[in-house]
Specification:
The complex is a heterodimer of chains A (about 260) and B (about 525). Chain A is α/β, with parallel strands linked by helices. Chain A has a single domain, classed as Pyruvate-ferredoxin Oxidoreductase, domain 3 (3-Layer(aba) Sandwich). Chain A has eleven helices and six strands. In chain A, helix 1 packs across helix 6 and helix 7 crosses helix 9. The longest helix of chain A has 26 residues. The chains are: A alpha/beta (about 260), B alpha/beta (about 525).
């Protein structure tokens, strides 16, 4: 087994924190790993990426070869596209759809989501929404690790343990926020995939996910939501038209 | 057995500590900074290793050489271009030789991720006639430091450990060993060896050249230089290039491979390979050093030597597994998606609210009336002011070069000659050209961007900030009336433009200090 991952984002978004969590989980799991990162000039608000590779045999290159990545994990949707030629033909993308706009020619978010939808093998989470629900907007990187967790090769407790050690120095409150962010991200990612696997389009799944109260998200409800909306599309429009967020288990009442 | 997750740089630092290090020296520079920082962090509690940033790489090298003179082990670390600054001390330390172990860890930057050139330090090791080790992975970074210190003391020579950005900034688990105790204080008694008067220097230089067969023997017999003979196609892979070869080879391949990581170049091993193959690809993350040596001026008869000079590998830039795959004539891997050619770029930029932005806005306005106003810049975050939207600086060459170049332009009659330099860069290389300008009475305007830290490399301590900076400038002879201090903020914009205009209108050497603390430094202090 070997897993090749490209971590992507913008300088300051906490890419290296994601790397820390996965590196140490890989170490605990007894895997070989290498993780190349960018320091220095590019960190000043520029595009930042890290190549992370682990597996049960020796890892040779610090860099992932083009076409050999299993996964892109990105804290920002535009940055996915800078690297997706690295993906192998059956590679996946896990990304936040919260844009980080610090350039004047940043594309329309809808067009980015359409490109991701066209690609298909995606897990999309609104990290802004989820991190806010967890208690701190800065925890968006942790949300994304949570969303990626089901595609990694570790028991969840192992990743959470290193989220904890990473933030331990910043106090219990920060640890709690990040553990919450991890769990919300994980649930939101699975819920999103549940909707898409249940037959919703990526675009519809994104719209619905944004409307659901993040603290109530439970992947177990995804098939029911997908089935209900497929049976009657007006349900989606009605849900979206409502003023407040919707609890995830509302679907039971709707069906 | 202990395992730690370490960057290549950190593994270098830990290897040095476990080799019985007594002092670490350096000046911050990507991709080498984390070597020093690791040693500083790791030894702080015990306080038994001297760890204090130096004013520049030359000073760092000399301090390390002094530690060696006293019999203790010293590590000096820098980026590749830093070795240019230290070259005088470095070259001559090979002639004096060493007492306590002296290891130079130098981090090259192929691909220029954060540098002005991609010079290859292996040539510097060759130039100085000293051994060079080139680790392939993080474990070797650690292990080779232990080896390098022993080798330095065996040979009484400085030893270079050369790494590249990709390894310096990549993490892996490293197995560590039991630390060796530090050397006792044991100053040299060999006075002539250390006093390079020509009569002594001739003797010492002869000693250095006499050591060369021993250096070569060690490289020939080194376990790091592994030769595997198989088919008639051969590869020499230097340093981490070997990883890229392994990445691309399938089981049962037929290539003959020489992996090189210990220099001087072992001619005997290469001869064995050359006599075995008829096609030889040379892979190096840096200059075609070995490739050119193997080919020589006139080529090898009967063996096609390929590499950066023949186009199989690009002449410039960082090596990677894809380039090596192509050079090995293997088909490219299929990918899930084409690269996106029209993607919006995301270049690095000054932080929002950065004091440099306010300084350059004011400077741009003050210079607006002049014909072709260009500003000589130096090396730091403020070099980013060359990019839109500011486009406020127009050169970046070497540490401290802004002041010397602006002076030269002024000598030629260019007006106004303006230099922009950070407070730490000023300490590093700006003091001497300023002294020179004052002595010559040059009509020069120096803007010192005093943000109180070395910002670009991660807010290390600056040697000349605040009052120290003012005293140095006055001590260099700048007239007190023409040492102006401004606080670069949006609110002070008009007043700052006015002060800059006053100095631009005066015929003499002025220094304008733009003083406001780096936002990153404030953030790091708070957290």
């Amino acid at each position: 087994m070997q897993k090749n991952i490209i971590l992507a984002g913008v300088g300051g978004q906490g890419i290296l924190s994601i790397a820390y969590v996965i590196d140490n989980a890989a170490l605990d799991a007894g895997f070989h790993f290498k993780q190349a990162e960018v320091h220095g000039m590019a960190q000043r608000g520029g595009a930042v990426q890290s190549h992370l590779r682990y597996g049960d045999g020796p890892i040779h290159s610090d860099l992932v070869p083009t076409g050999r990545a299993d996964l892109i994990i990105s804290v920002e949707p535009l940055e996915v596209m800078r690297y997706w030629h690295y993906l192998s033909p059956d590679g996946w993308v896990v990304t936040s759809i919260t844009p980080y706009v610090n350039i004047s020619d940043y594309p329309e978010l809808d067009s980015l989501i359409e490109d991701l939808a066209a690609f298909g093998r995606v897990v999309l989470v609104d990290s802004n929404l989820l991190a806010r629900a967890a208690g701190n907007l800065r925890a968006q990187n942790t949300v994304v690790v949570g969303a990626a967790a089901p595609l990694l090769d570790f028991p969840d407790g192992m990743l959470e343990k290193h989220v904890e050690t990473l933030f331990a120095g910043k106090g219990q409150k920060t640890v709690d926020v990040n553990i919450r962010a991890f769990r919300l991200g994980r649930a939101a990612g699975l819920f999103f995939r549940g909707l898409v696997d249940g037959g919703l389009s990526v675009v519809d799944a994104v719209r619905l996910c944004r409307k659901i109260d993040p603290s109530t998200v439970d992947p177990a409800h995804a098939p029911a939501w997908a089935a209900a909306i497929r049976a009657d599309r007006r349900l989606l429009e009605q849900t979206l038209a409502g003023e407040s967020v919707v609890p995830c288990d509302r679907v039971a009442a709707l069906a | 057995m202990q395992r730690e997750v370490l960057l290549g740089d950190e593994a270098i630092g830990l290897g040095a500590i476990h080799a019985g290090l007594s002092g670490v020296y350096g000046y911050p520079g990507t991709p080498s900074t984390e070597i020093f920082e690791f040693v500083e962090r790791r030894t702080k509690a015990a306080g038994d290793v001297h760890a204090f940033w130096s004013t520049n790489e030359k000073v760092a090298y000399e301090e390390a050489l002094g530690m060696s003179w006293a019999g203790k082990r010293a590590l000096v670390c820098m980026k590749h271009v830093g070795l240019n600054v230290a070259a005088d001390a470095f070259m001559n330390s090979a002639v004096t030789g060493t007492n306590g172990g002296l290891v130079l860890a130098v981090a090259d930057d192929p691909g220029m991720h954060s540098s002005q050139n991609e010079q290859d330090s292996r040539l510097f090791a060759q130039f100085a006639l000293i051994p060079c080790l080139e680790p392939r992975d993080q474990q070797e970074c650690y292990d080779m430091m232990l080896e390098a210190f022993d080798m330095s003391e065996d040979l009484a020579l400085p030893v270079m450990v050369r790494l590249v950005t990709r390894l310096a900034h990549s993490r892996a688990a490293v197995v560590t060993r039991k630390p060796r105790p530090q050397n006792p204080l044991r100053p040299t008694r060999e006075i002539r060896k250390w006093t390079l008067l020509p009569s002594n220097a001739r003797v010492q230089y002869k000693h250095l050249t006499d050591k060369q067969p021993e250096l070569l023997r060690r490289a020939e017999e080194s376990a790091h230089n592994q030769l595997t003979l198989a088919g008639r196609r051969g590869v020499i892979a230097c340093g981490i290039a070997h990883n890229y070869v392994l990445e691309n080879l399938e089981n049962g391949h037929d290539l003959s491979v020489l992996s090189l990581a210990h220099y001087p170049v072992p001619g005997g091993r290469i001869r064995q390979l050359v006599e075995h193959v008829d096609d030889l690809l040379v892979l190096e993350d840096g200059y075609p050093v070995v490739e050119n040596m193997v080919r020589g001026l006139f080529g090898l008869s009967g063996v096609r030597v390929r590499g950066r000079m023949t186009g199989e590998v690009p002449r410039t830039g960082e090596l990677n597994p894809d380039l090596v795959r192509a050079a090995l004539e293997l088909p490219a891997h299929a990918t899930a998606h084409e690269p996106s050619p029209t993607l919006a770029g995301r270049p690095p930029a000054l932080c929002k609210g950065c004091p440099h932005t306010d300084t350059f806005r004011a400077l741009n306005e003050a210079l607006a009336g002049f014909d072709n106003p260009q500003v000589f810049s130096d090396i730091g975050c403020y070099t980013l002011a060359a990019l839109p939207p500011l486009e406020a600086v127009h050169s970046c060459v070497a540490m401290g070069a802004s002041i010397g170049m602006a002076s030269g332009a002024a000598h030629a009659g260019y007006r106004p000659a303006v230099a922009a330099i950070g407070d730490s860069t000023f300490a590093h290389g700006g003091i001497t050209p300023l002294l020179s300008a004052v002595q010559q009475g040059v009509n020069l305007k120096v803007i010192v961007l005093d943000n109180g830290t070395v910002g670009m490399t991660g807010t290390q301590r600056s040697m000349s900030t605040g009052d120290t900076l003012d005293q140095i400038i006055l001590g260099a002879g700048v007239v007190p009336d023409h040492l102006r201090v401004i606080e670069p903020t949006p609110a002070n914009h008009d007043a700052n433009v006015q002060i800059l205009r006053e100095e631009l209108g005066w015929d003499g050497t002025s220094v304008i200090i733009a003083r406001r603390t780096c936002l990153e430094a404030i953030k790091r202090k708070v957290s």
